Amino acid sequence: MNYAQVIKHIGPGPHGNNDLDSASARDLFAAMLDGGISDLELGAILLALRAKSEAVEELLGFYDALAARIYKLPAPPLAVKPVVIPSYGGAREQPNLLPLLALLLKRYGIPVLIHGTLESHGRVTTAHILRELGVMPSATQQQGSERLRHDGIAFLPLAALTPGLAALLALRAQLGIRSSAHVMAKILDPVDGPSVRIVAHSYPAAVDKSRALMEAVAAEALITSSTEGEAFANPGRRPKMELVRDGSSSMLFDAEAAAQTTAATAATAGPEAIDARQTAEWIRQAMAGSVPVPHPILNQVACCLYACGYTENFNQAKAIVAIKSGNLAAA
Asked: What phi and psi, each to the nearest 5 degrees, are found at residue 106?
C-alpha cells in the first residue's frame, strides 16, 4: 500500500478528504496495528482521519482488521451473556461511577469484563477506583479469564488484549489528540462467545456511527452517550439508551428532558469529590444502600439485564431493578 497516496486521498485539500473503501481501510488499519508504517506516515494518517472523521465503511474495515488481532477470553459458562464495558476516559469534573455500574451488574450474577487504560492523563480512571474497591487489574488474558469466571468481574488493560491497538492509543501523548484507535477501543469485544457490549461516546455523530457499525456486524450492544468519555449514564440526566440486536436498533429509554432534572436528582448524582478514594467510599455506601443510586444508572442496569438475557422482556427488567433498589424511577 502506498501510504503517501493514502494520505493524499484522505487528507485535507482540494482533492482530499475522501473516504477509503472497506477493504482498503482494513489493509491500512492492519498495517497500523502491526507496526508496519513509519512514524511520520502514521502520524499523518491519524491526523488526517481525525480531521475528516471516519466513515462507517472505514470503521467496518478497521473492525475486521482488529478482530483478527484480539486475544479472546472464553465466555463464562452461564445462561446470561457477559457485559463488556470500555473505560478510556476517567473523571475530570464529575465522579467516575463506571465501577458502580459494574458492581451492580455483578450483584445480579452478570459477568462484567472491563477493558481500558491504566494511564490517567490527569484524570481519575476506572482502574484506580477499582483498586480502592479491591478489584485489581489482570496482568494477562488468562488471569482476566479466571477472574471473570470465579469473581464475576475483571479489568483487563488494553495491552493484554491487543498490543497493537494499545500502541496506537499511546500515541495520544505525542499527538495531543484522540485518534481512530480510541474509536475502535470503545467497540472492542474480547469475549469468545455471545456478549453485550456497552458502546458510549460523547458526540452524537460518534454515537450514530457506532450504532450503524454494530448493526452492520450484527453485534449485541447498548448504545448511549458517555459521561466524560466513560460508558455509564450521566447520573444527573439520563441519556438515550438503545439496544442493537439482530442488525437493528430499538429504543429502551429516551433521553431525559432538562425539565425532568430535579434538585433531588442532583442530590443523588454521586460523591462531592472525584478522587479515587472518596469515589470508592461513596460506591461502597451506594452498594450498601446507605446512599441512593442515581436513577439513570439504575435505568442502565435494567437495560443490561434485558440485553444479556437475565429477563425475557424489558418491563420485567425494569420492575426487578425498581423493586430491588427501592427506586420507582428505575421502572
From this structure: -60, -35
**Alpha carbons 163 and 237: distance in angstroms, whole number:** 36
292 φ, ψ (degrees, to nearest 5)? -75, 145
Element (DSSP H or E) covering residue 114: strand 112-116
Helix-then-strand count for the chain, H and E: 15, 9
Give per-residue pLDDT as tens, 94-122: 999 999 999 999 999 999 999 999 887 78
Q: What is the pTM of this model?
A: 0.93
Of the candidates 292, 285, 277, which has an alpha carbon nearest to the alpha carbon of residue 330?
Answer: 292
Q: Write down the pLDDT at residue 264.
A: 46
Of the candidates 128, 99, 152, the one whose C-alpha atom is nearest the C-alpha of residue 283 is: 99
Distances (CA, A) of 312 to 240, 241, 296: 21, 18, 21
Give pLDDT < 50 ranges for the chain.
263-264, 266-267
3-state secondary structure 186-226: CCCCCEECCCEEEEEECCHHHHHHHHHHHHHCCCCEEEEEC
What's the confidence (pLDDT) of residue 33? 97
CATH class of 3-67: mainly alpha
Cell of 3: 501510504
Enclosing H/E stretch for 156: strand 153-157
In the block, cell 452524537 appears at: 204
**Which amino acid is present at 259?**
A
CATH number for 73-330: choose from 3.40.50.1860, 3.30.43.10, 3.40.1030.10, 3.90.190.20.
3.40.1030.10
Q: What angle do CA 208, 211, 216 make, to 5 degrees?
A: 125
Q: Can you give the pLDDT at residue 269? A: 66
